[in-house]
Write a structure and sequence with these properties.
Elements lengths: L1 H33 L5 E5 L6 H17 L3 E5 L6 H8 L7 E5 L2 H8 L9 E17 L7 H10 L3 E5 L5 H13 L3 E5 L3 H9 L5 E5 H9 L3 E6 L25 E9 L4 H15 L2 H8 L4 E2 L4 H22 L5
Parallel strand pairs: 1-2, 1-3, 5-6, 5-7
Antiparallel strand pairs: 3-9, 4-7, 4-8, 4-9, 4-10
């Protein structure tokens, strides 16, 4: 009788222990299966209307259809994208708040103090990109990027505008000077639109800006393009050679947008978001709509985006170190 009681007691203890281990797993699985049960938020750390915002809205629209839940785009510009990034870095990792990231999520911590750690955010998926274009005034004598760089070395140097320290155009300038010896006098403006206006007014010799911004000026003949700084030609302007095609293979810069999540967000949720955004970016109507604006839809997997972010962090870090790039 005593032996039977002991056996029964051991069985109850074993069952209790098993239940204790299974319960959290079951809860986790059920939570992942129930997600998303209410609207998701995509925080855009830039103002409405730019490449990052347009890509965010295209991804949100398409991904919401896949997930069966609405996705709200929430613009929180400020401090070179630090403000919006910080909001997501400090958000609960429950799968309902995501950052529509850009290059600044990688480079900001390299050149300025930020209120979060890089490890507070994890890459989820690439959305797409607007290739950067190096532009000069329409009446400029430079035929192409090779001619521009050569001429910069022959005199006192040329003025190159940026959208501020640490901006995408600043990295283009940094690569031209540190990798290819271009002699450029950096002129930092408060925004890309200001630097483009300066080129239009012949106040500076050149700048680089997103394809979505400069294509209207190129098509109207108000500006001249020397090269696109991405690895492929722009679908909406295929006659423009890449910097790589002109012998500048290290210049690979684009105004890209991806999705990052607060660290600790369940992997099952990250996979679902990545899959939904990838499907959205593979939709033919979305591809054509973005293409018409000079934006390339990309998508992909979590793994491919993690690889991209890691490579960008290493590459941009080298430019920061070589140029001494720092906060304004």
């Amino acid at each position: 009788m005593l032996t039977q009681q002991r056996t029964t007691r051991r069985g109850l203890i074993a069952s209790a222990i098993t239940a204790a281990f299974i319960a959290p797993l079951t809860t986790s699985v059920l939570a992942a299966d129930a997600w998303p049960s209410h609207p998701i938020r995509f925080v855009v750390p830039f103002s409405a209307g730019g490449a990052n915002d347009l890509l965010a809205r295209a991804a949100a629209e398409g991904a919401s259809k896949v997930l069966g839940q609405s996705i709200i785009v929430d613009n929180k510009p400020g401090a070179g994208a630090v403000l919006g990034t910080d909001v997501v870095a400090k958000a609960a990792p429950d799968g309902y708040t995501f950052l529509v990231s850009a290059a600044g999520v990688i480079s900001n911590s390299m050149i300025r103090k930020v209120p979060y750690k890089d490890s507070d955010l994890v890459p989820v998926v690439m959305i797409g990109l607007a290739p950067s274009v190096i532009i000069v005034p329409a009446n400029s004598p430079y035929k192409d990027l090779k001619d521009f760089v050569a001429k910069s070395k022959s005199g006192a140097g040329l003025h190159f505008g940026t959208a501020g320290n640490g901006s995408t155009p600043h990295f283009v300038e940094g690569l031209l000077t540190s990798k290819y010896g271009a002699k450029l006098d950096l002129v930092p403006y408060k925004s890309g639109s200001e630097s483009v206006t300066a080129v239009l007014g012949n106040q500076i010799e050149a700048t680089s800006e997103a394809s979505i911004v400069v294509l209207p000026y190129l098509k109207s003949g108000k500006l001249k393009a020397l090269a696109t700084t991405w690895t492929q030609r722009i679908s909406a302007w295929p006659d423009l050679p890449t910097a790589g095609e002109q012998g500048f293979g290290d210049i690979k810069i684009a105004h890209w947008a991806g999705v990052h999540a607060p660290a600790g967000t369940p992997p099952e949720v990250l996979d679902k978001v990545a899959n939904a955004v990838d499907k959205a970016m593979k939709d033919p109507k979305t591809i054509e709509r973005l293409k018409g604006m000079g934006i390339e839809a990309i998508g992909g997997t979590r793994a491919s985006f993690v690889k991209f972010v890691d490579e960008e962090r290493m590459r941009l870090g080298e430019v920061v170190k070589a140029t001494g790039m720092k906060e304004d």
